[in-house]
Write a structure and sequence with these properties.
Helices cover 43% and strands 20% of the residues. It is α/β, with parallel strands linked by helices. It has a single domain (2-183, 201-227, 279-288), classed as Vaccinia Virus protein VP39 (Rossmann fold). It has a seven-stranded mixed sheet with strand order 4-3-2-5-6-9-8, sandwiched between helices. A two-stranded antiparallel ribbon has the order 1-7. Helix 5 runs parallel beside helix 7 (206-215), helix 6 (188-197) packs antiparallel against helix 9 and helix 8 packs antiparallel against helix 9 (255-275). The chain is globular and about 50 Å long.
């Protein structure tokens, strides 16, 4: 199943990313920022006993995805493409662990500047490169792995994106996808609120993504439902937050403020979807023959 969009422009999503990046920069300066201080804005996941000790919340997802890639046979010193790299957190963590070369793409000039500056600060600019471009554009060089973490939800054509990723993989290359994937039982109002708040034009469910990978010549080797690691707020409290932030967004005078408030609002709708069984948070790994 694919939940179809209400709107679809890269310009709109790029502006949304820029607004959030500016907000996170401000929040970081006052001691907040949802992990942006460590170049991570991924979902916070609860640790599991099998993960081992010493893996803090903001880094939990990158740890899990890298572990899955290594279990699937990730090449030594891999050549990796990060589709929707954001502030570069995944790239920096993977590079610290396995070396290699990385190219991350984002539609947001603000995110690209921030990630490139962090690469320069770390002295890894030659190995960790960041570009303003769409991951729907052809991938120029064959890659040992393509990562798409919480980015396909922002694609106007997730099936087409999967096909593009597959074309960009070297033989035995890996595609790793982590995203929110709707269930057939998802409440329409909650789903629409989430999509509007997080600028998600199309949402593909697990079956659609699996079919896309298979159709693109990939073999799915591993799947993991990470939903139990999420910790959504109680539904009653989420209803209050949705009402308050919905009103605040309507009253916000500027686009940037509406984007930021909408991001919070979309997050509350998403938590409500998880609370009501309408969404799953999944990791999928596939290999190119």
């Amino acid at each position: 199943m694919i939940a179809r969009p209400s709107s679809d422009t890269s310009v709109t999503i790029a502006g949304y990313y820029d607004s959030l990046s500016r907000f996170l920069d401000f929040a970081r300066r006052i001691g907040r920022g949802g992990g942006s201080g460590s170049s991570a804005t991924h979902r916070f996941l609860a640790a599991d006993a099998k993960d081992g000790a010493g893996v803090p919340g903001p880094e939990q997802l990158d740890h899990l995805v890298l572990t899955a890639a290594q279990a699937a046979g990730l090449a030594a010193q891999p050549h990796v493409f990060d589709a929707g790299c954001g502030l570069g957190g995944t790239i920096f963590r993977w590079h610290e662990k396995v070396g290699g070369t990385f190219d991350g793409v984002t539609l947001s000039p603000a995110q690209q500047r921030r990630a490139a500056a962090e690469a320069a600060r770390r002295g890894v600019s030659a190995a960790c490169r960041f570009h303003v471009r769409s991951y729907h554009e052809p991938i120029a060089e064959a890659r040992d792995a393509v990562i798409a973490i919480e980015s396909l939800a922002h694609s106007s054509d997730p099936i087409g994106a999967v096909k593009n990723f597959a074309r960009g993989l070297a033989p035995d290359g890996l595609l790793l996808i982590v995203d929110d994937m709707p269930e057939s039982a998802a409440n329409f109002r909650l789903l629409a609120g989430f999509k509007a708040g997080w600028q998600c034009p199309v949402l593909a469910d697990a079956a659609a993504l699996q079919a896309a990978m298979t159709g693109a010549g990939l073999t799915v080797t591993h799947e993991d439902d990470l939903t139990p690691r999420l910790r959504p707020r109680p539904l009653a409290w989420l209803r209050v937050l949705i009402a308050v932030f919905g009103l605040a967004r309507m009253l916000a005078p500027r686009r940037g403020a509406r984007d930021v408030i909408g991001a919070f609002l979309g997050g509350f709708y998403l938590e409500a979807l998880y609370r009501t069984g309408g969404m799953r948070y999944r990791l999928m790994v596939a290999r190119k023959a």
